[in-house]
Predict the 3D structure of the following.
Amino acid sequence: MSIALEAPRPLRSTVSIALAPPPEGPPPVRLYGEADLELTDTPLSPGAPGMLRALVLAGGARERESLVRQALSQLGFEWMGCASLRLERGEWRPQAVMTTYAPASWARSHGNVHQEFAPQVQPLLRSCLPLIWDLRDLADSPARCTQGLAESGVHSGVSLRLAVNGAHNAEEFALISLMSSRPDRSWIDDQRLGQTLTFILCLHEFLSRHARAPRVDAARRGELSSLQQRILQCLAQGQSDKEIAGGLKLSSHAVDYHLRQLRRRFAVRNRVQLVNAAARPH
């Protein structure tokens, strides 16, 4: 089986945000997408695989996204999740999550309820081998986790733990998961797995050595109150006004007031513009 690239298809827009942590609690997860990546001047290694070369030489975020989506489709997957995780106080906490190709449930499980992801991570922590799974294998995971995947249409996939910055660290690693709507894992044979792992390694090499997400302007974020930062983080995760109010124990009127204040501060007119403006370096 080989990966053949086709003409670019219409792309969905993505929204990302990164906020300074409030004084209390763990730092919020940094969410980013293809459009946030900045290429570095790291040269391609001799004999680099074609997929890596195509990503590095692509003409921009839209072309990269088209390449990735075509490769995913031809491998039999519809979604992909990329995250970096760090061991903090005995719990694996996500540090950054790429949202461009992920189903909503995957991004939420890393951004909001990271502790519910731990049962899926444990087999990867004990081995350098890929994990081929379907929802039946996650029977011991919390119901909210598996229900979220099922509601997004995810039923099977391949996950691989990878070293961060080329160094094997017992307290930090990257995780890439390719996900499919196919009902069980039997369709992922050795040949398909080999193609899948080559793709995952190329993507990880690109994200690790040839691209970086822009840094956040901490001073600008520091102008916001802790509550405003929490509201922006909820907004970036796609929560509705009602969900924000429930999660932060606020009235709907309070949420509406703070959103109006935030739109005024960032000089924007709607939710998408607000999230983009808050994430943009200044």
